[in-house]
Automatic annotation (TrEMBL):
Gene: pyrG
Function: Catalyzes the ATP-dependent amination of UTP to CTP with either L-glutamine or ammonia as the source of nitrogen. Regulates intracellular CTP levels through interactions with the four ribonucleotide triphosphates.
Active site: 381 (nucleophile), 505, 507
Any further remark recorded for this protein: CTPSs have evolved a hybrid strategy for distinguishing between UTP and CTP. The overlapping regions of the product feedback inhibitory and substrate sites recognize a common feature in both compounds, the triphosphate moiety. To differentiate isosteric substrate and product pyrimidine rings, an additional pocket far from the expected kinase/ligase catalytic site, specifically recognizes the cytosine and ribose portions of the product inhibitor.
Entry keywords, A to Z: ATP-binding, Glutamine amidotransferase, Ligase, Magnesium, Metal-binding, Nucleotide-binding, Pyrimidine biosynthesis
Name of the protein: CTP synthase
InterPro entries assigned: Class_I_gatase-like (IPR029062), CTP_synthase (IPR004468), CTP_synthase_N (IPR017456), GATASE (IPR017926), GATase1_CTP_Synthase (IPR033828), P-loop_NTPase (IPR027417)
Record-level GO cellular component terms: cytoophidium
Annotated residues for binding of ATP: 13-18, 70
């Protein structure tokens, strides 16, 4: 097994995740089987209990793992499916060690960070890498070098470097090169962060320097000299127009060839896989523009909806058009129902997933607006549940209908807990998570956009459409075109041009070059809407 260990210096938010994913993609293009592990040095067991306000989106894997959004980047760039084991947290490591201690597995020894915690970290990394069957395993250590939290992980990978042959591990350090008011590129922060890394016994083999502009030759040689790496190991990762350009940029800089040399690997393929490059060309050739309104709750932090934005992009690339997102805070509609008129000029309206009552009435005003004005509508999870409630209230005549999540005393709980879920109390175990199948109705929009009759998508929800109201709602013109036994997976309003709402989250399986079918169809519908408007 070959390992590439990615650390970050200077500050957070430099794009370590995208760098890791891009390195992986380039190695995959050369014929290697690549996997990736994200280390998050926080004490939470997983991201499931973390607020999207603080931490960005909770990404959901096929096995139901609720993980850091970087795993979404890995899945998209590597076009792979990972499992919850690929996200290591301090919480998971300590929990295992403490459980072992309670069972007496340490035979009376004092249980310590070194060696017990570090052994657990190394053991897990090696097991996950081996199980994946990959040639190369990327490990991204979250946080910034120097943080107290990440120390045990850095110590563990230091030990690994001692234990493995030197050609099996490469250390890649991502840093920042700021530009001062004179326009000079400053290398001091990089020098200091490499010094900090060295104090922990780690020596970077490659330095990826994030900078607003391409690194100058003198910046490169200065970093090489002061950080003790060859000049070709200083990689300029200057700002690019789109994250999907990053693999191409790093390839141009010779990064993967340098890593292959360090790891004593040769390209496996005669001809490289160029599908990523072709996808980027298609992306840059997109013409025209559609305007989509996203009506949500965490709209001030775009990372909260990163997979949705990426999925729209995947759809747009294959539709051949550009798109603009306008974010609406649903609460603004709650407060003033005239506000919803602002949605009139949009080619499509999307209501994403969410929890809690706040903003739900506003989201329903937006959904009603889409339905009544025949604006393409895509509803995801909560966006589907609210679509059902809105329809029940305003079309099926079930006044006061609601979800029991928001109103326990509603006369019509059209969204409710199914009996088998009512008594779950442990956070993290309460939800229906990960892959489940849905059977699609013949002749439905769902069947036509998926082109198959049974699909598998990822889930993250606790409440469901109440089966007792299904007939009543269907009689009024909304159909449930995707089902899993008594669970409603998709709602459509066939009298509208495009109205598709799913209990699942299709955004987690969308990939560049292989868009999620609902997103592709939504993009097509929006493009048609915008053309129709122009023709009028
Ligand atoms: N709050 C809803 C539920 O728990 C929807 C969840 C979501 O949108 N992810 O079922």
């Amino acid at each position: 097994m070959k390992y590439i260990i990615v650390t970050g210096g200077v500050m957070s938010g430099l794009g370590k995740g995208i760098t890791t994913a891009s390195v992986g993609r380039n190695l995959k293009n050369k014929g290697y089987k690549v996997t990736a592990i994200k280390i998050d040095p926080y004490i939470n067991i997983d991201a499931g209990t973390m607020s999207p306000y603080q931490h960005g989106e909770v990404y959901v894997l096929k096995d139901g793992g609720e993980v850091d959004l970087d795993l979404g980047n890995y899945e998209r760039f590597l076009d792979t499916e990972l499992t919850r084991d690929h996200n290591l947290t301090t919480g998971k490591i300590y929990q295992t060690v403490i459980d072992k201690e309670r069972k007496g597995e340490y035979l009376g020894k004092t249980v310590q960070i070194i060696p017990h915690i570090t052994n657990e970290i190394k053991g897990r990394i090696r097991r996950i890498a081996a199980k994946s069957g990959a040639d190369v395993c990327l490990i991204e250590v979250g946080g910034t070098v120097g943080d107290i939290e990440s120390m045990p992980f850095l110590e563990a990978v230091r030990q690994m470097y001692r234990e493995e042959a030197p050609e099996n591990i490469a250390f890649l350090h991502v840093t920042l090169v700021p530009i001062d008011s004179q326009g000079d590129q400053k290398t001091k922060p990089t020098q200091h962060s490499v010094k900090e890394l060295r104090e922990l016994g780690l020596t970077p083999h490659v330095i990826v320097a994030r900078c607003k502009k391409a690194l100058t030759e003198s910046t490169r040689s200065k970093i090489a000299l002061f950080c003790d790496v060859p000049v070709e190991a200083v990689i300029s990762a200057h700002d690019s127009a789109d994250i999907y350009e990053v693999p191409l940029q790093l390839e141009n800089e010779g990064l993967s060839n340098f890593l292959l040399k360090k790891l004593l690997l040769e390209s496996k393929l005669e001809v490289e896989d160029t599908s990523w490059k072709e996808m980027v060309v298609r992306m840059n050739n997109c013409t025209g523009k559609v305007n989509v309104a996203i009506v949500g709750k965490y709209t001030h932090l775009e990372d909260s909806y990163i997979s949705i934005v990426e999925s729209l992009k995947h759809g747009a690339i294959e539709t051949g058009c550009n798109f603009d997102i306008t974010w609406f805070d649903a609460e603004a509609f709650d407060d003033d129902s005239n506000e919803v008129e602002k949605l009139s000029g949009f080619d499509g309206i999307l209501v994403p997933g969410g929890f809690g009552e706040r903003g739900t009435e506003g989201k329903m005003l937006a959904i009603r607006y889409a339905r009544e004005n025949n604006i393409p509508y895509l509803g995801l999870c909560l966006g589907m549940q609210l679509a059902v409630i809105e329809f029940a209230r305003n079309v099926a005549g079930l006044e006061g209908a609601n979800s029991s999540e928001f109103d326990e005393n509603t006369p019509y709980p059209v969204i409710d807990l199914l009996p088998e879920q009512e008594d779950v109390v442990d956070m993290g175990a309460t939800m229906r998570l990960g892959d489940y199948e849905a059977t699609l109705k013949e002749g439905s929009l769902a069947e036509s956009i998926y082109g198959e009759s049974v699909i598998t998508e990822r889930h993250r929800h606790r409440y469901e459409v109440n089966p007792n109201y299904v007939d009543r709602i269907e009689e009024s013109g909304m159909i449930f075109s995707g089902k899993n036994k008594n669970r409603m997976e998709i709602a459509e309003v066939p009298s509208n041009d495009f109205y598709f709402a799913s209990q699942f989250h299709p955004e987690f399986k969308s990939r560049p070059g292989r868009p999620s079918p609902p997103f592709k169809a939504f993009m097509d519908a929006m493009l048609k809407k915008s053309k129709d408007k122009k023709d009028q």
